[in-house]
Design brief:
- There is one protein chain.
- This protein has 215 residues and is mainly alpha-helical.
- It has one domain.
- It has helices at residues 8-17, 22-58, 86-91, 107-114, 123-128, 141-150, 178-191, 194-210, and strands at residues 63-69, 75-81, 132-134, 163-165.
- The chain has a two-stranded antiparallel ribbon with strand order 1-2. A two-stranded parallel ribbon has the order 3-4.
- The chain is globular, with a radius of gyration of 17 Å.
- The model has no long low-confidence stretch (mean pLDDT 88).
């Protein structure tokens, strides 16, 4: 599936604008899959326990899926553990930005969002191949269109595959503006390499342990 956020000309322009870095993409892709499998195995008991609690709280589904925009505007389905009440998550299709003490979030949802457990199913996206461990966070099509209308270069974030975590996420996450998000994501795209890879992973560990920026 292809979204409407990028024209053919924009796709070609982005391809020529940023260095491909094929060796990094190859090595990081291998590391991504190894880490995804290891982390899924380690967290499996936690995932099952949280799934039971989600089910017990309101009887709804434990997973939440949604179309997001990936590399060069391709649409894909992202997976998360459901952290909101069913009616609320479906009514706005997840478009409304989450706020502090958001009433749409369930009791178990608050915990899994704070600890980022809700993001773990996205490791499946890494194994499928439509996401990386590190990259710009994937947004829904409507959000990107809105941001691009005010900030045309925002589309440049689609030069690489989106990530479970990213440079913008560990430097403010939900608290940064679209312009700041673009700045950090472009900084990653230009400087991506094993050193940046390790730096983002270490900062992600700190963010998860500290609960920094969780909503």
């Amino acid at each position: 599936m292809v979204s409407n956020v990028m024209t053919f000309v924009q796709r070609q322009k982005i391809k020529s604008k940023y260095e491909e870095k094929r060796l990094y993409e190859l090595v990081s892709g291998i590391l991504d899959r190894i880490l995804a499998v290891v982390f899924l195995i380690i967290t499996l008991p936690i995932l099952f326990f949280c799934m039971i609690l989600i089910r017990l709280e309101d009887g709804g589904p434990v997973l939440y899926s949604q179309n997001r925009v990936g590399k060069e505007g391709d649409l894909f389905v992202v997976y998360k553990m459901r952290s909101m009440y069913i009616a609320e998550s479906e009514s706005d299709n997840g478009l409304a930005i989450t706020k502090v003490n958001d009433p749409r979030i369930t009791r178990i949802g608050k915990f899994i969002r704070m600890t980022r457990i809700d993001e773990i199913p996205q490791l499946l996206n890494i194994l499928i191949g439509n996401m990386k461990l590190i990259g710009p966070r994937p947004l829904v099509e409507e959000q990107i269109i809105e941001y691009v209308n005010d900030l045309p270069e925002f589309v440049d974030r689609l030069a690489v595959k989106p990530g479970v975590t990213g440079w913008a996420q560990v430097n403010g996450g939900n608290d940064v503006t679209p312009r700041e998000k673009l700045f950090f994501d472009i900084e990653y795209i230009k400087n991506r390499g094993l050193q940046m890879y390790l730096k983002v992973i270490l900062k992600t560990v700190w963010v998860v342990l500290s609960g920094e920026g969780a909503r």
